[in-house]
Design a protein that fits this description.
Layout: H1 2-11, E1 26-33, E2 37-40, E3 44-46, E4 48-54, E5 61-66, E6 73-74, E7 79-81, E8 91-98, E9 105-113, E10 117-124, E11 128-131, E12 135-137, E13 139-145, E14 152-157, E15 164-165, E16 170-172, E17 180-188, E18 195-203, E19 207-214, E20 217-221, E21 225-227, E22 229-235, E23 242-247, E24 254-255, E25 260-262, E26 270-278, E27 285-293, E28 300-304, H2 317-327, E29 333-338, E30 342-344, E31 347-349, E32 361-366, E33 371-375, E34 382-385, E35 407-409, E36 413-416, E37 426-429, E38 433-436, E39 441-443, E40 446-449, E41 456-457, E42 461-464, E43 468-471, E44 475-477, E45 480-483, E46 490-491, E47 495-504, E48 508-510, E49 513-516, E50 525-526, E51 530-538, E52 543-544, E53 556-557, E54 561-563, E55 568-571, E56 581-585, E57 603-605, H3 609-612, E58 615-617, E59 620-622, E60 629-631, E61 635-637, E62 647-649
Parallel strand pairs: 2-9, 11-18, 20-27, 29-32, 30-33, 31-34, 32-35, 33-36, 34-37, 35-38, 36-39, 37-42, 38-43, 39-44, 40-45, 41-46, 42-47, 43-47, 44-48, 45-49, 46-50, 47-51, 48-52, 51-54, 51-55, 54-56, 55-57, 56-58
Antiparallel strand pairs: 1-4, 3-7, 5-8, 6-7, 8-9, 10-13, 12-16, 14-17, 15-16, 17-18, 19-22, 21-25, 23-26, 24-25, 26-27, 28-29, 49-53, 59-60, 61-62
């Protein structure tokens, strides 16, 4: 039975590949590489063969070469040897035959060429200087015919222990190598009779004493760049290479390997430190201090007189004012046209600001659209003070109101104040002259006084001591005069005129207020729109609207015009203002009752019944002591007769 089973198993062997075997491999092709190729007389060439087919045929082949003379042969490993006597241009055929299927083979065509020759070997650099303990990379170029191989062998002579050169031509000079010369030689591997050399002078190694960075101090704008350079100082010509770093910067502030500093747009103002460190001696470095500044924005053009061409090299409001300060001449208009918004610190316009010249007009205009000049810091954006100019005598025939303005606010100019300021936004004093035209605006200033008995004098404009403010148009709005301490008074949320001249021929004053925030036992809030204690002329299309106060006793006021004891209103015959103007008249400090006599004029000038009827009395006035509000009842402004314009009992 066992014999029968064994015979059965033998009979069941693999029909394809014998007992227990797999599928028989087949060969489809043989590929010889390289193909074609040139081989010089007396040279060799290595070939390889790839056998492709099914079932992973063996990669073994037999190599043969045909077409060559005696001595030209190929080894079992595919190394072709062409004898020196083989004729140039002879074509040889190298064949690789599969050992799996001898009917499958591949060939390569070989063209016999003349052997390469070497004419010279050039070593670079030559000559060279290398410090004790230093290194130097050399290279060699092998010149000749038929593209000789560039391979060389490197040697160095004249050196002591530790001085050597590697196979890649890197020379290392030992730290103890004496000064003098070495010879570096590169010998061709194609023709060892051909070589080239370089002379190396061994020097004492360089030392670094300092690193100097240029520029050493510099201002760079946010978002700007600055190129730095470094000089490495020392003995024996130390390398000038450095590594650059910057300290104090945020992400985006960096310096390149070439010393180009980039300051991020969001980098805060302050200082950065740029450092250059020597690569020869990393303990030696130099630094520069960089002050990061706000970017300078081009925002202004300056025109002189009737010129239509702007002054060259003037691009900011500050530059324009500086130019006027140094170059102004008598009786000249300097027009500054703002092309973008600007920020300005408190600025005084006095004789020095106009080169000590007379009748100089600085005119501000916005180019193309509204341009804002915002206040930086606390104080008046503009203080117009010409106390040291020649005197302006009062001429009854002409009147004191025809002086040329020192500052003229024209179309599209907005002066923008700030919260918790300590001054009116514009102060005109001591014969200074301010003029405001259509399209100009003074707005957003909060003049808050601090300390006991400290007054807040004017939210928008303060006019004092023989100064003149002429308002031909424009707007004074959203300003606020407020006392923060005890017993201080708030005068004129829009305009406070203290013994100056306020001429309002047009424009509008609105949405201003005056408020007392501290103890009010001896304090007053007088005139949300205008507080007048000087000469006040009103005419033309002037409009003064009620303020935004609440009329809560003297704590806050919305009265439009407050007339102090020395103040009245001179009404011009051309007054066509569309708004009715409220009045609040201060009572006498000499009497306990309202100061109502025939000599108390509220309105003066070219009065008519129609003009007088444009004015009404306000809701209250202040009594003498204590400072409490008293309704104005039983009084009116005479609108006809010899007492026209005067405050009188009903």
């Amino acid at each position: 039975m066992l014999l029968i089973l064994a015979a059965f198993l033998v009979g069941c062997g693999d029909a394809e590949g014998g007992p227990g075997g797999g599928s028989t491999p087949t060969v489809l092709s043989v590929t010889v590489t390289p193909n074609p190729v040139n081989v010089g007389q007396g040279r060799t060439q290595q070939f390889s063969a790839a056998v492709t087919g099914t079932n992973s045929p063996a990669q073994t082949v037999t190599w043969t070469v045909t077409g060559g003379g005696t001595g030209t042969s190929i080894s079992d490993g595919g190394l072709l040897t062409v004898v020196v006597s083989e004729a140039v241009s002879t074509t040889l055929t190298v064949t690789a035959t599969s050992t799996v299927d001898t009917t499958k083979s591949g060939t390569a065509t070989v063209t016999v060429t003349a052997p390469p020759t070497v004419s010279s070997v050039t070593v670079t650099p030559n000559p060279a200087s290398v410090g004790q303990g230093g290194t130097q990379q050399f290279s060699a170029a092998v010149a000749g015919t038929n593209s000789p191989a560039q391979t060389v062998t490197w040697t160095v002579t004249g050196g002591g222990t530790g001085t050597s050169i590697n196979n890649s031509g890197l020379l290392t000079v030992a730290g103890g190598q004496g000064t003098g010369t070495l010879t570096v030689t590169a010998t061709s591997t194609v023709d060892t009779t051909k070589s080239g050399s370089a002379v190396v002078t061994v020097t004492v190694p360089p030392t670094v004493s300092s690193v100097t960075v240029t520029p050493n101090t510099i201002n760079v704008e946010q978002g700007g760049t600055q190129q730095f350079s470094a000089a490495v100082n020392g003995t024996n010509s130390p390398a000038q290479t450095v590594t650059w770093t910057v300290a104090g910067g945020i992400t985006g502030t960096s310096i390149s390997s070439n010393g180009l500093l980039t300051v991020a747009a969001g980098q805060s103002t302050g200082t950065l430190t740029v450092t250059a460190t020597s690569t020869v001696n990393t303990t030696k470095s130099g630094s520069a201090v960089v002050t990061v500044t706000l970017p300078v924005v081009t925002n202004a053009e300056l025109y002189i007189g009737e010129a239509t061409t702007a002054v060259a090299d003037i691009s900011t409001l500050t530059e324009a004012l500086t130019y006027i300060k140094s170059n102004a001449v008598n009786d000249t208009v300097y027009t500054i046209k703002l092309t973008a918004d600007a920020v300005l610190a408190p600025t005084t316009l006095n004789a020095a600001a106009v080169n000590n010249k007379t009748e100089v007009i600085i005119k501000l205009e916005g180019s193309g659209a509204e341009r804002k000049i915002s206040l930086s810091g606390n104080g008046a954006l503009f203080t117009i003070n010409f106390s040291n100019r020649y005197s302006f005598p009062y001429d009854p025939a002409v009147g004191p109101y025809n002086y040329k303005p020192n500052l003229s606010l024209g179309n599209n100019i907005t002066l923008l104040g700030k919260n918790n300021n300590n001054s009116a936004l514009v102060v005109v004093q001591n014969y200074g002259v301010l003029q405001m035209e259509s399209g100009a605006k003074i707005s957003g200033n909060h003049n808050k006084s601090t300390g006991s008995y400290a007054d807040a004098e004017g939210g928008g404009v303060m006019v004092e001591y023989s100064a003149t403010f002429t308002m031909n148009g424009g707007e004074i709005s959203d300003n606020f005069a407020e006392t923060g301490g005890n017993n201080g008074s708030a005068y004129g949320g829009g305009v406070f005129n203290y013994r100056g001249r306020f001429l309002m021929n047009g424009g509008i004053i609105r949405n201003n207020r005056a408020k007392v925030a501290g103890s009010v036992s001896q304090a007053e809030a007088e005139g949300a729109g205008v507080c007048n204690d000087g000469t006040f002329l009103i005419g033309g299309t002037a409009i003064i609207e009620p303020g935004t106060g609440t009329d809560t006793a003297q704590n806050q006021t919305r009265n439009t015009i407050f007339l102090k004891l020395n103040g009245d209103i001179q009404v011009k015959a051309n007054f066509t203002g569309s708004a009715v103007v409220d009045l609040t008249a201060e009572q006498s400090t000499l009497a306990a009752s309202p100061y109502v006599t025939s000599s108390r004029a509220v309105l003066e000038g070219d009065l008519t019944t129609a003009l007088v009827n444009k004015f009404t009395l306000g809701n209250f006035q202040y009594s003498n002591n204590p400072y409490t509000s008293v309704p104005i009842t039983g009084y009116h402004i005479e609108n006809s007769g010899t007492n026209i314009g005067k405050l009188a009992a009903n």
